[in-house]
């Protein structure tokens, strides 16, 4: 995994044209992105359903880019081995999900992957504190998880600031990732708050020239 001092651009495949999935992945890679972000939703933890391990495996077979798999599912411990086998490089699980968070993180790391912990837009930062020394990535949902196209909730950036302060105070090195409502207008605030890993959907996949969009994301 790249150092947390480096800006990482991770377009969300939820916003890609799934009828041209391989081409869309190639388009993102040619545009110079660092990771592909895959939001897995089960209809329980969040009110939407997206895709599962077979979809992740398909992406893995078509390219060798880092796959940042975000399990927005109620039982990540139950499905974990399937996503590991599918080719995920990082797996992020939610603190709100129904599982032993510490044990799930240990299993991810034992499989040779990096691990992340996510909190939803309404969850306080304190809910994640017990596990922040066990992760490689801390994901702050800057919307209410479940659907793309929502506006960023400004108050969620307080958790980004808290995550940065905690990392510095405890000598840690996890990435701080944001997901939801990130575009040219909100990215400066996101970066100023302390995020370095940027998930964006329509702001990247939804534009004709993704390479120019990625360059702009890096230049801000």
Oligomer: single chain
Q: Rg to the nearest angstrom? A: 16 Å
The percent of residues in helical segments reads 25-40%
The N- and C-terminal alpha carbons lie at a distance of 22 Å
Which range does the strand content fall in?
A: 15-25%
Which CATH first-tier class would you pick? Alpha Beta
Number of strands: 8
Give the count of helical stretches: 8
Shape: globular
Description:
The protein is an alpha/beta fold and 220 residues long. The chain has one domain (8-219): TIM Barrel, CATH 3.20.20. Helix content is 34%, strand content 20%. The chain has eight helices and eight strands; from the N terminus they run βαβαβαβαββαβαβαα. An eight-stranded parallel β-sheet has the order 1-8-7-6-5-4-3-2. α2 packs parallel to α3 (76-86) and α3 (76-86) runs parallel beside α4 (101-110). The model has no long low-confidence stretch (mean pLDDT 95).
């Amino acid at each position: 995994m790249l150092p947390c001092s480096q800006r990482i651009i991770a377009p969300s495949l939820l916003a890609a044209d799934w009828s041209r999935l391989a081409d869309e992945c190639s388009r993102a890679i040619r545009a110079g992105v660092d990771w592909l972000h895959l939001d897995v939703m089960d209809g329980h933890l969040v009110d939407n359903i997206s895709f599962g391990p077979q979809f992740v495996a398909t992406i893995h077979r078509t390219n060798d880019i880092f796959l940042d798999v975000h399990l927005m599912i109620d039982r990540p411990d139950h499905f974990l081995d399937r996503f590991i086998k599918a080719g995920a490089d990082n797996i992020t699980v939610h603190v709100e999900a129904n599982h032993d968070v510490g044990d799930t993180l240990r299993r991810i790391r034992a499989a040779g992957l990096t691990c992340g912990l996510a909190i939803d837009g309404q969850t306080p930062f304190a809910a994640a504190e017990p596990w922040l020394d066990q992760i490689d990535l801390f994901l702050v949902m800057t919307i209410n998880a479940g659907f793309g196209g929502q506006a960023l909730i400004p108050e969620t950036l307080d958790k980004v600031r808290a995550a940065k302060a905690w990392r510095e105070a405890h000598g840690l090195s996890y990435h701080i990732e944001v997901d939801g409502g990130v575009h040219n207008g909100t990215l400066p605030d996101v970066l100023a708050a302390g995020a370095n890993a940027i998930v964006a959907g329509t702001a990247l996949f939804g534009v004709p020239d993704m390479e120019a969009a990625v360059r702009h994301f890096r230049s801000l």
